[in-house]
Task: structure prediction
Amino acid sequence: MSIEIVFWTLLHVLVLVYWLGGDLGAFYTSRYLTDPGISPDRRLMAAGIVGDVDMAPRTALILALPTGYMLAVRTGWLSAPVWTAWCVLLAGLVWLAIAWRLHLAHGRAPVWLKTIDLGLRWVLLAGLAACGVAALSGAIDMPAFIALKFLCLSAAIGMGLLIRRVLSPLGSALVGLQSPEPAAAEAKLAQTLTRARPLVLVIWALILAAACFGLLKPQIY
Result:
């Protein structure tokens, strides 16, 4: 195995590590948001920590395809020109810069940047799903394990978009904690996080499934 393949393999494995590890950290810390024994100021601080930690899985999601595609091309699992892998990597880095710009702006980023980020997620979701289904049906030439990984990543992106929708009331609920009567905000906050947590578990299952498909590639080629 060449040094280059080792390098891309390591990066792709780190995507898995930071995706699951970051998600676990955000998942665990989110429980402090609904703890009535903690002051509103501390819960707002916990919300900020959750947002920062959550950038690890968000970064991993964006880098999953570029690192995986590069690895597949360099190992010969995919018959595609190397320049396409570099183009995918460059596009991923541009998207990553947009995602971090949105995070660091704390809601004050231009609307067009949010639109691009959201649009990229929908395009990637549809494209990966289409490629995965086409490959499994024999319409295009692609190893089955890569097609299955594509479907897992597409579904994970879909779950992420759904989580965004579910968590949309979170900001107003956190602000409501500092009101004279925070009971309604408390209930709204608890309900919102309760609805989001099962979706996070689905993402974990999809990530682990994708990892298993990668490890079992000779058997499901």
